[in-house]
Specification:
Helix content is 39%, strand content 19%. It has 477 residues and is of the alpha/beta class. It has 3 domains: 184 residues, Rossmann fold; 126 residues, AICAR transformylase, duplication domain (Cytidine Deaminase, domain 2, 3-Layer(aba) Sandwich); 129 residues, Cytidine Deaminase, domain 2. It has a 6-stranded mixed β-sheet. The protein has a 6-stranded mixed β-sheet with strand order 14-19-18-17-15-16. Strand 9, helix 13 and strand 10 form a beta-alpha-beta unit. The radius of gyration is 31 Å and the shape is elongated. The protein starts with a strand and ends in an 8-residue tail after the last strand.
Length: 477
């Protein structure tokens, strides 16, 4: 497996001349492309142009030069495999034993202020990743180098092994090569999948990583509601949700829950957004607005804000929800079924208190339950049948989440008298339920399952509260 032929094509030319000169002194035949070949010739290093090697010219302004069977055949045929070697000889494939490639500077290009889409696209490398992957796939015979920091190690390995590289080094470099192409693809497309199947951006800046997370969270929330509903979210947490046949009134119910948090937030609705709602929404700064459609007048109003992203939901929200929940962790990813439990929507669950909830209370509990599912734990939502009244999210203590929700309602001037409290996980102690009763709640909905459930139920009975155990814990992290 002595290295007799190398293909060198680099965007970042740091150290490449010295590396190539050392290879040439070892008697390695060097093939190169474009600017790399020009540099090596200037350094008096013998080099063969890629077009001479492939017997095909570089065309389309250099877009097609290494995408050729003689390149990839020379990289991919299995050395020692009689069939492969016979086919390689028949096709005229000369073996390429070493590939030195780094990629067009896509990441650096898009990081420049004011970069245009056309410039970014021209800096998407096609041939480079293809060569890297071909070489890395055949690492048993081919050495692939994607980082100038490895030049010295490769040269030392060649010198120490009579012109060859060791399998251990080739394995390490192949892993590094595949990691690099994966990073490169991630930079080009921060999102994997068919997001565009469900969402269409009608206006505004490009979507960021956080924008996409917020859009997904908003869609998951609005999928809970069949009646006309408006939701307002901040950092993927609902901060206000309202339902009404008049979407403008639904907005009022959602917005009044928390008039500060919506600044820079996400707005979602499950009916076409009309002019009256567009007018009131335009009075505050929002990052993203999502709707099944936008009336012409509404779009005209909202598009005056050049940075506001308008997103059309192309399918029912229930179809856009992910079926799997994937989270990155140290050393890998966790995958589980997405939380799409809907059993309680139709009035399921178990009444555990002496007093049964009234129809109004039941509707309030069900509304709160649909919202609290989407609030980060520890999560508490105070609600009525058609709106949120107070939301407490992401606290280390459930009682603190309740206190925040009560404080939010007080700040908004909303009374919690006769409200329902929804908790995403069980009340571990009666204190959370007692605090809710003191705030004015007359009913509660929670998963149940605490070792102190009997104490919590007793506290509810003492205060004449109605309570439902759903048997479903959301506990969103």
């Amino acid at each position: 497996m002595k290295i007799t032929r190398a293909l060198i094509s680099v965007s970042d030319k740091t150290g490449i001349a010295s590396f190539a000169r050392a290879l040439e002194r070892q008697g390695v035949d060097i093939i190169s492309t474009g600017g790399t070949a020009d540099l090596l010739r200037k350094e008096k290093i013998p080099v063969r142009e890629i077009s001479k090697f492939t017997a095909f010219p570089e065309v389309l302004d250099g877009r097609v030069k290494t995408l050729h069977p003689r390149v990839h055949g020379g990289l991919l045929f299995k050395r020692g495999n009689r069939k492969h070697e016979a086919e390689a000889r028949e096709c005229g494939f000369e073996p390429i034993d070493l590939v030195v490639v780094n990629l067009y500077p896509f990441e650096a290009t898009i990081a420049k202020p004011g970069v245009k889409l056309a410039e970014a696209i021209e800096n998407i490398d096609i041939g480079g990743p293809s060569m890297i992957r071909s070489a890395a796939k055949n690492y048993e015979s081919v050495t692939v180098v994607v980082d100038s920091a490895d030049y010295d190690a490769v040269l030392e390995n060649i010198r120490d092994n009579d012109g060859e590289t060791t399998l251990k080094l080739r394995e390490r470099l192949a892993i590094k090569a595949f990691s690099r192409t994966a990073e490169y693809d991630r930079a080009i497309s921060a999102l994997y999948g068919d997001f565009d199947k469900y969402f269409e951006k009608l206006h505004g800046k490009e979507l960021s990583f956080n924008n996409i997370l917020d859009i997904s969270a908003a869609t998951n929330l609005i999928a809970e509601f069949e009646e006309p509903t408006v939701g307002i979210l901040k950092h993927t947490n609902p901060c206000g949700v309202g339902s009404d046949a008049d979407l403008r009134k639904a907005w009022d119910k959602a917005f009044v829950t928390d008039k500060q948090a919506p600044f820079g937030g996400i707005i979602v609705c499950n009916r076409p957004l009309s002019e009256p709602l567009a007018k009131v929404i335009s009075e505050i700064f929002s990052e993203v607005i999502i709707a099944p459609d936008f009336d012409g007048e509404a779009r005209a109003i909202l598009q005056k804000k050049k940075n506001l992203r308008l997103i059309r939901l192309l399918t029912p929200a229930t179809q856009a929800r992910p079926k799997m929940d994937v989270r990155s962790v140290c050393g890998g990813v966790l995958v589980q079924d997405a939380d799409v439990a809907e059993e309680i929507k139709s009035g399921g669950g178990r009444i555990v208190t002496k007093r049964r909830p009234t129809k109004t209370e039941l509707n309030a509990m069900l509304f709160g339950w649909r919202v609290v599912k989407h609030v980060k734990s520890n999560a508490i939502v105070y609600a009525k049948a058609d709106r949120t009244l107070g939301v407490g999210a992401g606290q280390m203590s459930r009682i603190d989440a309740s206190r925040i929700a009560v404080w939010k309602a007080k700040e908004a001037g909303l009374s919690l008298k006769g409200s329902a409290i929804a908790s995403d996980a069980f009340f571990p102690f009666p204190d959370g339920l007692i605090a809710a009763a003191d705030a004015g709640a007359t009913c509660a909905i929670q998963p149940g399952g605490s070792v102190r459930d009997k104490e919590v139920i007793a506290a509810a009975n003492e205060r004449n509260m109605a309570m439902i155990f759903t048997g479903i814990r959301h506990f969103r992290h």
